[in-house]
Amino acid sequence: MLKSLSISNYALIDQLLMQPSSKLSMITGETGAGKSIMLGAVGLLLGNRADTKVLLHEDKKCVVEGVFEIREYGLKSYFEELELDYEETCIIRREISPGGKSRSFINDTPVLLDTLKVLGSKLMDVHSQHDTLLLGEGAYQLSLVDAFAHTQNELSSYQQAFKAFRKAKKNFEELKYKALELQKEADFNQFQLDELSALSLVTGEQEELESTQEILENAEEIKLKINELLAVFQDEQFGVIHGLSQIQQGLHALDRLAHKFGSYRERFQTVFIELKDIVESLSDEESKVEVDFGKLEEIRDRLSKIYQLQKKHGVQTVEELMEIENQLADKVFQYQNLDESLADAEKVFKDSERFMMECGEILSDKRKSCFSSFEKALQELLAGLGMENAKIKMDLQSTPPSTSGLDEIEILFSANKGGIPQALKKVASGGEFSRLLFAIKYLMADKIALPTLIFDEIDTGISGEVALQMVRMMKDISKNHQVICITHLPQVAAKGEAHYFVYKDNSADKTISKIKLLNQEERVQELAKMIAGANPSASALASARELLQN
To answer: The whole model's pTM is what?
Structure first.
């Protein structure tokens, strides 16, 4: 329920504060005074787009704020889902800066416009003459039937089945496309896989082969150089090892003579051990090096094949070739198992389609089951609104599966006796549309949990007893919902618990719109002006008082 609405710097409104009744509030005022401007501001709270053209003062920001009491509307889970702070009193604010930037807030937390739009749709229903266009749309008519027939569970089950069907269908179609691609590439993939598999590649082998190749290509010179070095080290009279042994003995002698030289002996011993190890290692390497032209040719051939495949596949390492081999093996495996995979995917697709259609038929049956009562209830309401000969007929046509079901529903209407019901957009006039739309709103008020309903001149084109019946229905709705009605009819305005008057103030440099809550005597004056014009007569004043008393 809307507790208060404040608007600043919007169109003709400088500052405006309204605290509507929890029941039925009426808003009246002269043409162009700003009644519809207020609805535009409310639209901002519901997530409508806006631009800087709405700013009254171009150097100031526009702020529209609504305070809502939401304790009884079961919205806590929605707030939790969006990670918003839940308060029983919810404040929605919309700001538009002079630069054109729009910001939205729920309980002071910035939110996206789509979030605001969803929450707004759960709090308010703004109904104007423009909604007659909406009434002619099939999706809107379908939503009315679903609400009236209480198909929430059936619709939810169907939509889950439809979602599963679309997923299974997409998977099957993607697999079929993949199968075609694999089929086109099958022979080539197999050839490439065989080419790679034939090498039996091993991780790290390229580096090892290249190192071995380097040694084999220089084997004779390597053996010669090692032997020359060993000769220098190992000659019995003049070799390095012989000389170092003599140095070792001398350092031992010095150590015995003076402990100071012990560190030199230890340091030399470390170097001497390392040199002898080098000599032994070189000797081992020399024995391993062999001049083997056959092995060298084998290594060159294998490396050549590896290099060719690396160039072919645009990679640098054996490990990358092995990864490509695995990928090719996977594609070949998929191709070899295509029939089984396709059969499995097709079965899931067909099963999900069958289940979706079953859920869709259940939903369709539930919708059709309410047609008779929906038609009867609407016709009775229209009769009370002065359309005794109105006839409503529900038409259901089967459609391809969509997120809303298997049905296309259209409300057929005839206002005249003996007339054949036809599509609303073809037969209903403006006034007839208004009454039909109001009757639907009345019928749906308790089917759709909306705290606040706003009617914008829904009484256009009607008068007399029909207007009185319409306002009686509004009062009936207001027993369980907050209703705000913008009207130009005095007999309608007189029935509100609260009456707000919108007017223009020309006292400043710019014309601005203001609103005031009328007291009893001010209501009499306003109603009399609505009856008889700017200077109401005594009889008009008496008529106004009579309207307020009845």
So the answer is: 0.65
